[in-house]
UniProtKB/TrEMBL annotation:
Annotated source species: Sulfurimonas crateris
Cofactor(s) recorded in Swiss-Prot or TrEMBL: Mn(2+)
Pfam families listed in its UniProt record: DHH, DHHA2
Entry keyword Hydrolase: yes
Lineage, opening ranks: Bacteria, Pseudomonadati, Campylobacterota, Epsilonproteobacteria, Campylobacterales
PANTHER family: BNIP - RELATED, MANGANESE-DEPENDENT INORGANIC PYROPHOSPHATASE-RELATED
InterPro entries, per the entry: DDH_dom, DHH_sf, DHHA2, DHHA2_dom_sf
One Gene Ontology cellular component annotation held by this UniProt entry: cytoplasm
The entry's keywords: Hydrolase, Manganese, Metal-binding
Name this polypeptide is given: inorganic diphosphatase
Recorded GO MF terms: inorganic diphosphate phosphatase activity; metal ion binding
Keyword Secreted: no
Length: 305
């Protein structure tokens, strides 16, 4: 029986590519593994898959009775609803340790670096397995995405080293030019609904018993959304009601200006203001230099709850 590998709900490029790259490694090591996904493919991920001629992993939302590996998350709020009925064989991640627990020992690779695919690159190196050109290219793009082309404070020397080595394997010398093409694809908003924009990279968190949702939309120029802000807020209010959230936040991250416009709908917005030492105006605030949800948002928000 196959073992399934997947990332968090509302998957980003790291979680999709991570499922593919880890599945290939595990198969080479003698395990029968299949990459899957919990949600739709984003425009950025579609760009990566098309660029390297790869197919999207199978959509699968139920894992009861299955053996699984988790990539890019360890929070119950980002897992399938029946995850407690699955056997978790391992976790590969670069976030804080979440609240998922297991009944048996597991393989666990969690590193404080910029991307799960950097961790997977280390796993390939550890096991002495050669990375195919197409998978190397996708892994390289995932790292460039998660580190915002090395601008994110989460980026480490290990990430930059991995990108350089992966670029040699896939034969792409000007990887920063490719990364800009990728971010332009990621910035596409024409025809997208407010729900699509709010959930392209959205994660739910249980903060000491309080449900909080945080989405992030990374773009080359967030000004193209100026006339969509009202729609985004209207949909955020619906999401808050549908999911029983205390707070929902969307970060519109401008990778060129290197900061994020914060949109907030909350039962107590003062918690958000305290977290970021700012004052909201019309439920918004500009957070200069904030590019990382993992390092610059969640660690400051969670203590408020």
């Amino acid at each position: 029986m196959s073992t399934y590998i997947f990332g968090h709900t509302n998957p980003d490029s790291d979680s999709i590519v991570g499922a593919i790259s880890l599945a290939y490694l595990k198969n080479k090591l003698g395990e029968d593994c299949v990459p899957t996904r919990q949600g739709d493919i984003s425009p950025e991920t579609e760009f990566i898959l098309n660029r390297f001629g790869a197919e999207a992993p199978e959509l699968k939302t139920s894992y009861a009775g299955e053996k699984v590996y988790l990539v890019d998350f360890s929070d119950l709020a980002q897992a399938p609803k029946d995850i407690k009925e699955a056997t978790i064989l391992g976790i590969v991640d670069h976030h804080k340790l979440g609240d998922i627990t297991t009944d048996t020992p597991l393989e666990c690779w969690i590193r404080p670096i910029g991307c799960s695919n950097t961790v997977i690159k280390e796993m390939y190196d550890y096991h002495g397995v050669e990375i195919p050109k197409d998978i190397a290219g996708m892994m390289m793009c995932a790292i460039l995405s998660d580190t915002v082309i090395f601008k994110s404070p989460t980026c480490t020397k290990i990430d930059t080293k991995a990108v350089k080595e992966l670029s040699q394997i896939c034969g792409i010398e000007d990887y920063k030019a490719l990364a800009m093409e990728m971010f332009i694809a990621k910035s596409a908003v024409e025809g997208a609904t407010a729900r699509n924009l709010n959930t392209r990279d959205y994660k739910a968190f249980d903060m000491n018993g309080t449900k909080v949702g945080v989405g992030q939309l990374e773009m080359v120029d967030i000004s193209v959304l100026n006339d969509r802000i009202g729609d985004l807020f209207a949909d955020m209010k619906l999401m808050k009601q549908e999911d029983g959230l205390h707070t929902i936040m969307i970060l519109l991250t401008d990778i060129m200006k290197e900061g994020s416009q914060l949109l907030v709908v909350s039962d107590d917005a003062s918690k958000v203001e305290k977290a970021f030492n700012t004052k909201l105006q019309d439920n918004q605030a500009w957070l200069d230099g904030v590019l990382s949800r993992k390092k610059q948002v969640i660690p400051f928000l969670q203590p408020q709850f």
